[in-house]
Design goal:
Layout: H1 3-22, E1 30-34, E2 37-40, H2 41-57, E3 62-65, E4 69-72, E5 77-85, H3 87-91, E6 98-105, E7 108-116, E8 121-126, E9 130-133, E10 136-137, E11 150-153, H4 163-174, E12 179-181, H5 186-194, E13 200-203, H6 208-220, E14 224-226, H7 234-237, E15 240-243, H8 245-256
Parallel strand pairs: 3-5, 11-12, 11-13
Antiparallel strand pairs: 1-2, 3-4, 5-6, 6-7, 7-8, 8-9, 9-10, 13-15, 14-15
Helix pairs in contact: 1-2, 5-6
């Protein structure tokens, strides 16, 4: 079985656990692991199932999971896992959440899978092979300007020191775009950008597991994904702009009026 196929299988395995708890959220324990940062039994069990599924097929691989951190034997392959992207949504029974799995090989992201269990949407991308939704090839939107665009974002509630910068960027964005949405699952925001639903996505201070799979999807769908200054540091730093080429260019120009990547250190 290929890495892509196994990642899809692992995502669905984790989703089975999430769907089980989705029906009994009133009995699901959840704890606060950081400011506005929740984790539940569902997150932990989903990640454990995903890791076991992948490790059974690729015993020499390493793992970077939101809940368990870095594990494994090292080597050239690391799976980057968010077992429940959108935990706050999930705990409130707001139906926007996903499972995100990416593979990094020799420092390059090569596979991205985002699974949306409630709609049974499987977003898949492999480097050099394109991006797909339930088997149908994806392409980013054809919009070439931020003017009139439909964008997604996320609020920097874990980086309050940068809220003023974000608000300044947001003010300029909403003065020209058609609409901005904040669904609450960065992996899905990027997946739907790859599908051309959103013309672009931007957010501050995400984690690697938030952006790894979605970044592969957007790039393989013909979009551009960078940090706030146009570089590659978004993988580690989490300041990300992913969009159709023309929208991406203008978003970077707009952001540059207010901040640079090196001004967003934690």
């Amino acid at each position: 079985m290929s890495s892509v196929d196994r990642a899809v299988e692992a995502a669905k395995t984790g989703a089975e656990i999430l769907l089980k708890y989705w029906q009994q959220l009133d009995r699901l324990d959840a704890t606060l692991k950081g400011r506005h940062d929740w984790v539940s039994k569902a997150d932990r069990e989903s990640e454990d199932a995903i890791v076991k599924c992948l490790a059974a097929a690729f015993p020499g691989d390493s793992f970077l999971g939101e809940e368990s951190g870095a594990t494994g034997t090292g080597g050239d392959r690391t799976w980057i896992i968010d077992p429940l992207d959108g935990t706050s949504n999930y705990l409130q029974h707001f139906p926007v959440w996903s499972v995100s799995i990416a593979l990094r090989e020799r420092g390059e992201m090569t596979v991205g899978v985002v699974y949306e269990p409630l709609r049974e949407n499987v977003f898949v991308a492999e480097r050099g092979s394109g991006a797909f939704l339930n088997g149908k090839r994806l392409g980013v939107s054809t919009r070439d300007s931020i003017d009139g665009s439909f964008l997604a974002t996320g609020f920097p509630f874990r980086a309050m020191e940068h809220v003023e910068k974000y608000v300044s960027i947001f003010r300029d964005v909403i003065s020209v775009c058609k609409g901005v949405r904040r669904p609450g699952s960065a992996a899905l925001d990027l997946a739907y950008t790859a599908a051309g639903v959103f013309d672009g996505f931007f957010e501050l201070h995400l984690a690697p597991w938030d952006v790894a799979a979605g970044g592969v999807l957007v790039r393989e769908a013909g979009g551009i994904v960078t940090d706030f200054s146009g570089g590659e540091r978004f993988w580690e730093r989490g300041n990300i702009v992913g969009a159709a080429p023309g929208v991406h260019r203008e978003l970077l120009e707009l952001i540059a009026r207010h901040t640079r990547e090196d001004q967003l250190d934690r």
